[in-house]
Design goal:
Elements: H1 9-20, H2 25-32, H3 36-49, H4 66-78, H5 84-93, H6 100-109, E1 113-116, E2 118-121, H7 125-138, H8 143-147, E3 149-157, E4 167-170, E5 181-184, E6 192-199, E7 202-209, H9 215-232, E8 240-242, H10 247-250, H11 252-260, E9 264-265, H12 278-292, H13 297-310, H14 313-321, H15 323-332
Parallel strand pairs: 2-5, 3-8, 8-9
Antiparallel strand pairs: 1-4, 3-6, 6-7
Helix pairs in contact: 1-3, 2-3, 5-6, 7-15, 12-13
């Protein structure tokens, strides 16, 4: 049977007007060229609901019962790496036959969506506790203290490659919960390695590390780039240097070199990149570089240097200004990596 065309709002209103002046359903139908049954349906709706507007339509019933919705929601909450196929099979064993899109739509209504799992450092309980301890100890430090820190780190930038992905079901803003991430080990290789630093005043120097870095090379990098960065960033006397606990950084010779240079070093917990705001700058840099699509290693290095220099000082300033919020978030998440 062909689907009938819906009457316009004006036509429905005319039907009601004619009915109110005393005309019969048949007379209204003849005047407007409509079936008597269509006229009667409009008049009954008006008498019942006092409107001729379309009412809310419930549509087809849900394929998955409320109990089934709770079942699959509980499953992906316990194991975010559960696939749609797994859930289809699970419901089928319970007597409900559904498709993968139905699973997706149902979980979307519960505030869950399928996302690529983030790659994060593998954290042991000792790392989590150290991170939590650092956040608690420094939570009440004045903002001026963080403004006087020079933050540093190394990162790798690939020319083309994309990291493999793994999808997980999660709620909004939960991408860095341990269940929704893929643990990684630091420095798994790449096309170029960079060392850089920054402070609340803006980006410091950025250099390419062309050979495998050891303690001696790291000290040479600091000797040639750290003090010039501090001068360019107009750091106050007594500024503090931050670097992580990489063996090259914590080697006895490096510690002695820093002591002789009278550099104050911020005590830092292991495996805690989320505490270092330079990670945000690395992400900013990688996005900028990817947009320019370098085609070779030489171009990649040149573009990295150009884009690093273009990062506004206000971006750096905001990262430092919000450092207390970063520590608060770490404490709220009990030492685990959190969104910032």
């Amino acid at each position: 049977m062909a689907k009938t065309k819906e009457l316009s709002k004006d036509t429905r209103n005319k039907i009601v007007d004619l009915h109110q002046v005393g005309k019969t359903d048949s007379a209204i139908g003849k005047q407007l060229g409509l079936k008597k049954s269509s006229v009667g349906a409009i008049i009954r709706k008006w008498k019942t609901y006092k409107t001729t507007d379309n009412l809310h339509r419930s549509g087809a019933p849900r394929k998955i019962s409320p109990r089934g919705v709770k079942r699959i929601t509980r499953t992906v909450s316990k194991n975010p790496r559960t696939t749609r196929g797994d859930l289809v099979n699970d419901l089928q064993r319970a007597g409900t036959k559904v498709t993968k899109p139905t699973i997706s739509n149902t979980l979307h209504r519960q505030g869950l969506k399928s996302c690529s799992a983030r790659r994060v450092p593998l954290l042991k309980p000792v790392h989590v506790q150290a991170c939590l301890k650092f956040a608690r100890e420094h939570l009440d430090d004045p903002d001026e203290d963080w403004e006087n820190v020079i933050w540093s780190d190394e990162t790798k930038i690939e020319l083309f490659g994309k990291n493999s992905t793994r999808r997980v079901w999660r709620t909004k803003n939960a991408e860095l919960h341990p269940k929704n991430t893929i643990p990684t080990v630091k420095h798994g290789g790449g096309n170029i390695m960079l060392w850089g630093c920054f402070s609340a005043k803006g980006p410091g120097r950025l250099i390419r590390v062309k050979e495998r870095m050891n303690g001696a090379m790291y000290r040479e990098i600091l000797s040639e780039n750290l003090l010039p960065s501090a001068r360019a960033l107009k750091r106050k006397r007594g500024w503090v240097f931050q670097h992580d606990n990489d063996p090259k950084h914590t080697a006895r010779a490096t510690k002695e070199w820093l002591r002789k240079k009278h550099f104050k070093v911020l005590e830092w917990p292991s495996q805690s990149p989320d505490l270092n705001p330079i990670e945000n700058l690395w992400r900013e840099l990688k996005v900028r570089v990817a947009q320019r699509q370098p085609q070779n290693i030489t171009a990649l290095e040149e573009i990295c240097m150009e884009e690093w220099a273009k990062i506004p000082a206000t971006v750096c300033e905001n990262l430092v200004k919000t450092y207390r919020k970063r520590l608060t978030s770490v404490i709220a998440n009990k030492g685990y990596i959190t969104k910032y």
